[in-house]
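Narrative progress, year one. The postdoctoral researcher (J.K.) led the effort to move from monomer predictions toward full complexes, under supervision of the PI. The following entry was the first complex the group processed end to end, covering 426 residues in total.
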Amino acid sequence: MTKSIIKSNYIPQETARRLSLYLRGLRNLKQDKILTVSSQQITRFLNITSVQFRKDLSYFGEFGKRGVGYDVEVLINEIEKILGTNVLREIALVGAGKLGSALLAYPGFLEFNLKICVAFDNAKTKIGKLCGPIKIEDSKNMRSAIKKRGIKIAVLCVPLEYAQKISELLVRSGIRAILNFAPINLVLPKRVFVSNVDMASELEGLIYKLSRK
Amino acid sequence: MTKSIIKSNYIPQETARRLSLYLRGLRNLKQDKILTVSSQQITRFLNITSVQFRKDLSYFGEFGKRGVGYDVEVLINEIEKILGTNVLREIALVGAGKLGSALLAYPGFLEFNLKICVAFDNAKTKIGKLCGPIKIEDSKNMRSAIKKRGIKIAVLCVPLEYAQKISELLVRSGIRAILNFAPINLVLPKRVFVSNVDMASELEGLIYKLSRK
DNA sequence: ACGTGTGAACCGATTCACAGCA
DNA sequence: TGCTGTGAATCGGTTCACACGT
């Protein structure tokens, strides 16, 4: 019986973000046949302090043994339960240009049981093309296709100038979370969660730091 | 003579990151022939408060007119000066797989005067291939090529298992800032700045929020 | 002794509240 | 009056210091 594990009911944003990193680290340890790990040991790979790690976990429960550490297998299961990676989550991809096609082939999503299962484009040249196991569909059918499958998550890789309009259409189609690659701030209802992947600005930030150090 | 504009000498990390967003917003306004803008107006597009905007700018100087707002043109110039986007910054790309090739063609970098000017791969099938204006070079020559050109910034798109080793080689080649697309925490000297673009974990974070709201 | 779990202190960043200038 | 610029208050998140279990 999957009892709710959440102990505290306010969980810092950042803590949630780090859980996926912990899961990754733990899986690597498991692969190396390591059964038990202390917060010290695990945070040598991740660049996070051991206190941070312990505190983060403490929001969800007590998973370690004092004087010993954490059972790798058990902790993996707990984090998977928290993140809900036990069920496959279906994702729609919109815009099958260079970047979109690359994401279609990106193996990293499976790590968290995330799967792009439909892709849309409006270019005649792309519609019907197979990209790995996925056939690009006409974006005319996007709304109905997303609604029918009940997909709630989208990856948006359309050119800048279409991003706002298409994101609005996605919301009307039932999408509740968008990973946005267009360098623009999407203005959408607050109930919709958007995460921006802004490569140019990221790089600029890096260079700014570099220039001041 | 470009006098230093920095007023305060501690500038929050986050402030620096936002400057590029402001620059973008201002350029859009300029394109729409808008000459003057208040902090209120500009922050309707970006999702940032007007106080945040003013405070951020205040670290660098006083660019606005009370009762009026900011001259769009002037502010663009000031931010460009701060970010150093007036000079072209050369970038090396490592790993010309699907994602790497997509980034080679990504037009968004030019926005900040960033340009991928060399690309490397170790696959025979890719070496010598033209990707837009860039010819993929053999990664054997990477170190000397980067050193010779004095490139300080790299985009890393190699498969997970090579990422750590290659990043170390990049550092030995003189690279000081890395935009890393591999889902791993690179362990490098502190003087090297790394920014991770972790699409799967980003998406997972989004879904976690969704599941709790 | 060792390593977890956690209230309290701290720190960076955001927001408030308002003074100052056009 | 309108909007900027900024010290002071506040907030979210991290780190400290240590109690507790094994």
